[in-house]
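Private note to self, pasted from the team thread so I don't lose it. Backbone tokens:
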């Protein structure tokens, strides 16, 4: 389609910027995610996935790994704990801190959230072949790995 068929399309110089494209894809992804998951569920997914992959972590370590503020992590953990999705235990090596671990209820919730996340990714990436999806993931990972991690 030509630009004449899309009169409201942004200028080519703007569309050519990787940062502009990534921002637009991020906005689209957030909108698609919001259609399937509540806002808190996105952070729940990140926290539960971190606990599944790394095992028991302190609240501070969860925040560092996910780039989240410590107070925000506390609110998420309180919510997850109230639903029995995580468990807090005193760290036997440092009684001043708690270790957070995933419970079976949390594992089940993570699987449910994963199904929603997969559906969003399928919708977002519908215009790409499986090979293109892998290539995009590889290139984005390479780009992110070339920079220092940033907090959220």
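Design output:
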């Amino acid at each position: 389609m030509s630009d004449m068929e899309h009169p409201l399309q942004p200028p080519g110089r703007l569309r050519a910027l990787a940062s502009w494209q990534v921002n637009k894809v991020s906005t689209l992804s957030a909108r698609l995610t919001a259609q399937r998951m509540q806002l808190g569920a996105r952070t729940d997914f990140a926290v539960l996935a971190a606990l599944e992959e790394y095992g028991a972590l302190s609240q501070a370590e969860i925040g560092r790994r996910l780039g989240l503020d410590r107070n925000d992590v506390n609110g998420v953990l309180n919510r997850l704990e109230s639903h029995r999705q995580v468990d807090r235990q005193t760290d036997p090596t440092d009684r001043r801190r708690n270790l957070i671990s995933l419970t079976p209820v949390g594992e089940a919730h993570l699987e449910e959230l994963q199904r929603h996340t997969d559906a969003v990714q399928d919708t977002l990436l519908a215009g790409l072949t499986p090979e293109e999806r892998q290539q995009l993931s590889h290139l984005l990972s390479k780009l992110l790995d070339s920079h220092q991690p940033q907090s959220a």
